[in-house]
Amino acid sequence: MSTPKTPKKKGKAVNTSSPSAGSDISLDSTPPLYSPHVRQRMNKTVYDSAVLPLVERASALKRNFSELSAASSRSIRAIKLAKGDRKDVTETAIFREHSSLIKAIIESMELEFRAVSQEIETLVDEYEKGDLEITAGQQRAELARLETHVANLQAKLVVARTQKNQLAGELTDRSMAQSVKDEDTSAENMPPWGQAYIDLLLDRYRNPPHATLQLFRRRTPEEQDRFRKAVLASYGAYDKKKGGMAWCCVSGAWCTPSDVVAAHIVPYNVSELHAEHLFGQRDGGHLMRPENGIPMRKVFKEHFDNAEIGFVPVSKDSNDYKIVVLVNTGDIALPEVESIQGNSLQFPNDFRPTRRYMYFSFIMSLLRLRRHRVSGWNKAFREYGMKEMWVTPGPWVRQSTLLTLAHRVGHMSPEETSLFLDSDGESRPEVDESLEELVSDVSQLAKAVQAHSSSFDSSDEDDLDSPLAGKGIPRGGNSLATLPSWFNREGASDDENEGETEDDSDGEDREDDGGDGSEDAGSEDAGSEDAGSE
């Protein structure tokens, strides 16, 4: 097979030797770049205008951080020499130095996040226009590699923003314990609070003991069991009289209980802290309520998690939902879902998912499709946009966060966002942009973990170290990329239910009807691992 030629439309191929002519930047100091094969075929004019400036700025900021780290270690050494026995004064001054260092690394990671996100957007746009002559498999592999790095950055940014005082405190403790004579501030011997060490801390702090924000924490079997029981009981989806069968709301049929799971609508890994920011305060929280789950067969949960199917109201004032296929089934083999397009979700009783959760989830699905230009995304946007299918959300979901999600997840311009979200002319209160970005990153990460978890066999559910290599892209065609092995190594759940969905629904102020009844649904059959523990 002949090698595709470089496009000749708008400029020459990109030089693959370095980020810019004459620069001398090591790979360690740059964001991940396109592979040589892709860069040789990337339009140089597009690359130089859209990608290169951000890559160069991110690289420069990384180099500046290394210099700042060395200067900080020299300052700390001087502080310890000058303060002598004044331990309290010394500790406070050193803490400030480390706090400044944490702030600098956050700024560095944020700019790198922007640079790699721009690489992803340019890769997708150029491939979609036909100006990047690479195969579909090469595009998916490149996309998966860059998305992995973005996810890694997101995870570290979440930790750095939420745990910055703890990080600075640990660095301070190490500095206070280190003897002045043991410190070496030479460039060849960086002190333990250099970037590599902080990276290790950020990895470890993803799951600090007793932390409020437990990223990628595996739920205990008891938590999983309680949630499933509550969901099945609330929906009336378990029937002893039918031999312990469980109901699937998607297929509208009684199924073997081991094949039915309680799919989260809003992912569990969003954490209650961020769910409260999105949806407002609610007694008992949001994520483990039965209104945040839907009983369905595992195969449909996988399609739901991968944004291949979604649920929209039958009408704007309806509390019932119909199933919509969001991708082009002609390009992606989805035999299980073609027959359910347009069907209504079949609920066994009057219990319904919360509408705001379903709304949020559907937005996330469309944004992810748009981000990767999955085949059929244009049609999904036209037919199922927010203004077409949903009433104005009002207080359901924080609109400022949705705007941030549209930008960071969907790479949407302000004009596109106003068309996508029902936000025309709406006044915007002052918002904390860093908090909005944090909640956006957590939501996107949680969805990625959820989609990734769905590709597991049940035999993987108890093995946190099982390798995920090769499971990055489910099925053939241009489907959504999921995350590779580092997520699992860092503690991502492999559980069916740990993989959460980013959808919002509404049962608005409904109480947790499933609480008392969950014991009934939790008879041995419904609650056992064989009954489909997620």
Automatic annotation (TrEMBL):
Note the InterPro entries from the entry: HNH_nuc (IPR003615)
Q: Where is the composition biased (Acidic residues)?
A: 493-534
**What are the residue boundaries of the HNH nuclease domain, all occurrences included?**
248-312
Q: In this record, what's one Pfam family? A: HNH_2
- Output the superkingdom of the source species: Eukaryota
Q: Using the record for this protein, list the coiled-coil segments as residue ranges, or answer none.
A: 106-170
Provide ranges: composition bias, Basic residues.
Answer: 1-12
Task: Return the annotated region ranges for Disordered.
Answer: 1-35, 450-534
| Keyword terms of this UniProt record | Coiled coil
Q: Where is the composition biased (Polar residues)?
A: 14-29
**Protein name as catalogued:** HNH nuclease domain-containing protein
